[in-house]
Known about the structure:
The complex is a heterodimer.
Chain A: E1 2-15, H1 20-25, E2 31-45, E3 50-54, H2 61-68, E4 76-81, H3 91-94, E5 97-101, H4 113-123, H5 128-142, H6 157-169, E6 175-179, H7 187-204, E7 207-211, H8 215-221, E8 224-229, E9 232-238, H9 241-246, E10 249-256, H10 267-270, E11 274-278, E12 282-288, H11 292-302, E13 305-311, H12 315-324
Helix pairs in contact in A: 5-6
Chain B: H1 2-21, H2 23-47, H3 59-93, H4 97-100, H5 106-112, H6 117-135, H7 145-170, H8 173-176, H9 180-192, H10 202-209, H11 219-227, H12 231-258
Amino acid sequence: MIEVTNLRKTFYVHKKAPGLRASFRSLFHREKTAKHAVKGATFRVEEGEILGLIGANGAGKTTLVKMLSGIIHPTSGDARVLGHVPWERSNELRRQVALIMGQKAQLWWDLPAADCFLLLRDIYQLPEQEYRTSLDKLSSMLGVKDVLNVQIRRLSLGERMKMELIAALLHSPRVLYLDEPTIGLDLTAQKAVRDFILEYRSQRAPAMILTSHYMEDIERLCKRIIIIREGEIVYDGGLRTVVEQYATEKTVTAHLKKNGELAVAKPEVARLGTVAECNAVCVKLRVPRDRVAEAAQALLHHYEVADITIEEPEIGQIIEQIMTARGGSDAGGPGAPESLGAPSIAGSSAENEEEGS
Amino acid sequence: MKRYLRLYLHFLRFSFSRAFEFRVDFWFRIVMDCGFYAVNLILFTLFYRHTDTIGGWTIDQSYIFISGFFLVDAIHMTVFSNNMWWLPLLVNKGDLDYYLVRPVSSLFFLSLREFAANSFINLLIAIGIMIWAIARYPGPGELGALNIVTFAVLIGTGAFLHYCLHLLFILPVFWLHTNRGLAMVFFSMGKLGERPDRIYTGITRMVLLTVLPFSLIASVPTDTLFAGLTVGRALHVTAVCVGMFSVLLFLWSRGLRGYVSASS
């Protein structure tokens, strides 16, 4: 449903040194710099799939979403959404697409949501019966039926976001872009929005692209993620696979029998990995994946163990490390996954810095 | 067409709902515009204390001209001005996004979504002034029903040209990111249209009748009311309207192509 091929976007911004003199000079001469917001993105999204787009601030996530929703034109590359070029903005495509931006409101601030929905009914030319059924269903699912006639500005942030969701989904889009839909919401509202998205997906199976800084959104909603770093896709694959791909270590924890003695990190154990914790209660080791069994055996052999656990690192932690790592040489800092410096596994080509048009 | 009419009815309903909520602003705007009408009428009355004609028009003809100008201004203030005011802000803040993803003309939406309901009364007052000016014209029968209808139609095209011109002066905001200078130029040039076109000569007059057709807004319609519509003038006004709107559509499309939104 969404096909993206080598999509690029370059913005040109002028640099200005601080101070009045520099301001005056900029009247006559400006130094322009190119900011490569998206560097050759290539991927597909299928029907019913929720693709998580993850990256630090300024990584290029929103720029990518804006190109795919037809808001901005790319510098080069190609994309097809339901067979259409999104930035040509054909009405046929726009009738089947919806965009929600957590940081931008689409509803009239001084009006009740119900009034705004009537406008959307006519924009999307929805038959009256279809509109009523859709509104009834969405407002019931989100639990906002009783506030439909309250002015938007009098609603809580959570209620406003629910209204935004209804506004985006009234016309049953086949493609949905969700740009940080839970930003600023409390935990209950975040969960409600996530549950709703999952339920909506199970009923309508649209293709969705979700960007979020909240790992819980990603973990709950997405089986597949794209990690974007400085405009470049550095990972495109399963959410769980990212752990195997990038987490080179596991944590082995021996919970000790309670004898009150402080455990000592024995050299036979310490040589297997990094001792993260060693006290009267447990001995915790971070060891390479291929030495997990050996480490477990050593712990059982050298300590009085009541229980033993083997854990993968947290996905959020791994992703955060991938997102914040900079290029190959910078990636090998303490705790950074070894493979961060490796070539992209997403198939995006090495970047040459000439940007056209 | 029917769909766009329905959408416009929504805009009207929304605008009236909001205007009634802020009632101080509602009444203030009416008082302010009435002051504007009074100042202009007094100004022309004072001019005619020193001369019998301006640009070949008597005071009675000038009152009709001013009333035409008031009506165009009231239409603009009511229908377009809020939208024109908002547009640069929307462009610079990246708030056009939602308008571009809807299956509806973004130019229609962004030009008409804000109807200034609190100026609506002024529109009625401007119509009242026009009826007064025509009714007090010595021998209104001389004007003829056909000329009055033609005058009304040309005032409509004048309002349309005023909208096109205003928007054309705003559109550079897509590239320049500020249009304050150009907005000042527009309002200064707009003053040229507040005087009879016959007072201008040579290239100035030609520019005001073609490239920057401020004189087609109220002066030429008023002249047509007295002199009647010729084929040449009908073609001239039509060509300028089509030309201006084509340029507007072209620049709108180029502007949207250059729109960079703003990071969230």
